[in-house]
Amino acid sequence: MITGANRGIGKQILESFIEAGAARVYAAVRDVTSVTPLQEKYPGKVEALALDLSDPESISAAAAIATDVDIVVNNGGILHNATPFADNAIQALQQELEVNLFGWLHVARAFAPVLKNNGGGALVQLNSVVSVKGFAEFSTYSASKAASYSLTQTIRDQLKDQGTQVISVHPGPIATDMGAAAGFPADMSDSPTVVAEGIIQALANGDFHVFPDSMAKQIWQAYQGFAENVVDAQMSES
Ligand SMILES: NC(=O)c1ccc[n+]([C@@H]2O[C@H](COP(=O)([O-])OP(=O)(O)OC[C@H]3O[C@@H](n4cnc5c(N)ncnc54)[C@H](OP(=O)(O)O)[C@@H]3O)[C@@H](O)[C@H]2O)c1
Q1: How far apart are CA 160 and CA 138, in angstroms?
Q2: Which residues, other chains included, contact 7 with Cβ-Cβ below 8 Å and sequence gap of 6+?
């Protein structure tokens, strides 16, 4: 089940999963007609599921329908261009938290029992390089992605006993509508394919962190030591 599977990175994940052998993929989207082209391209393999990340009831309803899911991809998200002192900063952060944080937490909570019933499976979170490094031009988006990364770590801990693999994906600039809206130059942006391939590899290897594209790999070089020694370390709260 992939949220926001009608375009951008989500659409590529859907296509790459099917090409890698997935029998069926739920495309969880706001407008179910937006996945008609994918249903025509992959007959019998794409199920449209109505889901709005800002509407918790739609998330619960989707989880009641898609009871055979064994991989959940939290992908759908929004970005506003807002510095901390811009007029739109507070509203931007509220909207981004609603979708990128609360929406994803609702998805994790609704689908965790589904994954458990189906043997564990995996939860994939499309975080970002901005989860570990804030950028002023989209500071509120960065904050939402940092918060999502924090929740991703604790969700991993909590789902370990039911055998659910949690994956935290941290792309840099990727050539999508969001990438264009953020102002990433086309020659600095990698293809959504590298993100989808990174996820498939992490599912096979059992990895937690995925820094898939060229900029993300550079950041991972510097961040890996901290991730392994602090984020991945077993530490007691007491
Ligand atoms: N592009 C990048 O450079 C980049 C880098 C790092 C991380 N990411 C993350 O990767 C994910 C996908 O990004 P993208 O670049 O593919 O973005 P995109 O091209 O803007 O597509 C966003 C997707 O999210 C869906 N969405 C937005 N609000 C939603 C809501 N309330 N309920 C359900 N679906 C909703 C959109 O559906 P509609 O068609 O209905 O609007 C669309 O399918 C996001 O979480 C993003 O933060 C992107």
Answers
A1: 33
A2: 34, 176, 177
Burial 164-186 (b: 16+ CB within 10 A, else e): bbbbbbbbbbbbbebbeebebee
Q: 2-231 maps to which CATH number?
A: 3.40.50.720
Alpha-carbon span 7 to 176, nearest angstrom: 8
What are the domain boundaries of the chain? 2-231
Identify the residue whose tokens are 């709260």: 237
Return the half-sphere exposure (C-beta side, CA atoms, 13 A cut-off) of residue 24.
10
Distance (Å) from CA 206 to ligand 1 centroid: 25
Residues 189 and 210: their CA atoms lie apart, in Å, by 17
13-38 residue pLDDT tens: 999 999 999 999 999 999 999 999 99
Query: Is this prediction's pTM over 0.85?
Result: yes
Q: Give CA–CA dist 181/67, Å, rounded.
A: 35
Please name every residue paired with 123 in a beta bridge, in sequence order, or none if there are none. 72, 166
CB-defined site of ligand 1, < 6 Å: 3-4, 6-10, 29-31, 34, 51-54, 75-78, 99, 126, 128, 171, 173-174, 176-179
